[in-house]
Fold this sequence. Notes:
This protein is mainly alpha-helical. It has 16 helices and no strands. The longest helix is centred in the middle third of the chain and has 46 residues, at 255-300.
Amino acid sequence: xxxxxxxxxxxxxxxxxxxxxxxxxxxxxxxxxxxxxxxxxxxxxxxxxxxxxxxxxxxxxxxxxxxxxxxxxxxxxxxxxxxxxxxxxxxxxxxxxxxxxxxxxxxxxxxxxxxxxxxxxxxxxxxxxxxxxxxxxxxxxxxxxxxxxxxxxxxxxxxxxxxxxxxxxxxxxxxxxxxxxxxxxxxxxxxxxxxxxxxxxxxxxxxxxxxxxxxxxxxxxxxxxxxxxxxxxxxxxxxxxxxxxxxxxxxxxxxxxxxxxxxxxxxxxxxxxxxxxxxxxxxxxxxxxxxxxxxxxxxxxxxxxxxxxxxxxxxxxxxxxxxxxxxxxxxxxxxxxxxxxxxxxxxxxxxxxxxxxxxxxxxxxxxxxxxxxxxxxxxxxxxxxxxxxxxxxxxxxxxxxxxxxxxxxxxxxxxxxxxxxx
Length: 422
């Protein structure tokens, strides 16, 4: 690949932020307020701290092994092939789930803005996935350019909305119409919305697409997580103070549109709707871009069907991109927001915990950061499983069945695929 088509710092940072914010504040604010009440902002801080420690571990391992592929590549380098293959199947599921969440959210914000019926969000989700699948098939330059434009636009709208809400400082609105929660509610909220921070790890799959990755990737990922924590906290406080906690919970799919309309009337509604479209669109774009490259690497190692390693004339893993798009569109048209978010969060906690454990085994300074990251992932994972057992049993059963498929069904499926290709 020619040097001018590779991503510099701005594009790399934008890919990380785009992958986080799209699934974060627009998709999960109502869910986290429902679980944590007035401590929703602390949920974002806790999950963000775990993500920041995990980003540090990713940076350590990328510098050590200098390969694309994230947790999968690190485990392969350590000759833990079976664990790597099982984990990556779960991770790919997590990315497919997040694309469906972003598309689901995209459709609901547009449907609210145009006062369209319940049919529109599903149709819109299918359309945006199809459009961004096409963008990704055109190559790196198109995907990175779209990311830079959309990220800076949505950050401007989100910060503006948060500032308006904070100027109308009304702490009582953080519990208006809902039962106040204790600080422990923040732990449950953090565990449920961990997918809001998954975007930074996408950079580990883009190692070969980044200009000077050993220098840029750690800087971009760590600074992106810090920036996103700040935005999430500001918006969680500001939006809730604008409309009250009960409205955020009742209108969870479109909570920020309601807040924007309350702040600036029609102008606010339009601005937030545009930002939501940009935000979820950039998140779909970033996730499609990076996950397809992960799938190509895994398929090249025959831990996925080898046909998924196929590239088009623009060196894009086209079959992987299309496969992600098709499955994500199906889930977006059938799933519910809460179940999709919690299932995706659990898969990312497993991957982040693995990376922190691997980084902890090596030499280097700041081992305490990696240890805190590992402890945080384990604690959040246990809380997430317990919450799903209490409130989302079907989603938990689905995750368990898919884990069993990844561990025990994967070898059979791969042998079957190999026989068909022979």
